[in-house]
Amino acid sequence: MFTRIDHVMICVPDLAQGIEQYTRLGFNIHAGGVHPGKGTHNAIAFNRDDYLELLAIHDQAEAAAARSWSSSGVPLSDFIAAGGGIRYVVLQSDDLAADVSAMRKRGVDVSDATDGARLAPSGRELRWKLAVPGPGNPLPIFFIQHITPLEERRSLVPGAGDHPNGVYALERAYIVVDDVEAAAATYARVLGMTAPTPHKGTVIMANMAVFEIGPTGLGIVHPYAQGPAADALERRGPGPFQALYRTTSMGAAARWQQAHGIPPLARGVRGTGEQAMLATPDLACGAYIGFVGAE
Q1: Which helix (H) or strand (E) holds 102?
Q2: What's the CATH number where 202 sits?
Q3: Whole-structure pTM over 0.85, yes or no?
Q4: Residue 179: which of 207, 158, 199 has the closest Cα?
Q5: Same structural domain, 6 and 132
Q6: CA gyration radius, the chain
Q7: How confident is the model at residue 63 (pLDDT cuts 50, 70, 90)?
């Protein structure tokens, strides 16, 4: 079964610059390694049970030959050239072969579960199984089952989870669409879940259907007024645009960011009554990155 959102993949033109910017936002983020045969390399910021990934091309020819991470049909190089940002929301499975079989029984076009790996800077190989939607379901998600245990993966990232911004968990990731009810029905079939009833989101100014996947939420949204969702849809069209992280201290996050040259982030009030801060795409490498938690 699908157990949670494993991570969001944020694609950037230059990995070192992406690491620098996310460090300024308060994430403890370090080079993760290379993907053999894919032409890409990444950086990882671990939380308690999930992580944030920055991904960039390090070998253009190899990436073009591999069509790196291109289940959407849009080459990675084109996605980055158009501004980058969140390319995929990655869902974790505890039995990917079984989930692939179940999806196919529901009429979902999805690949087999195939082997994936990356080489960490230490030279250690980290392994997983991966499945991606096929052309019949060109969705900006894919599915992963880790073979290398979480604690082993965390051990390769210095200070994993110890972020100056106090972030400890991904709460939600949002995908903007043209029609929230139709898209929610599609995602419901893929995930094997009941489509949630849409409700208004007051920070992103969108009607949103939120699939609760373990401790995380996958929001399928359409704007009802100008705001982050409308901006993302106008600039880039449908696709993932925001990740919302829970922090132990909004104040600590704000102080770190301002001390490192990040201007004060815009604040909004969620339907829960909580305040949220939002880093805009110009500050977060093409993505909206939200923070919510205690003051």
Answers
A1: helix 96-105
A2: 3.10.180.10
A3: yes
A4: 207
A5: yes
A6: 18
A7: confident
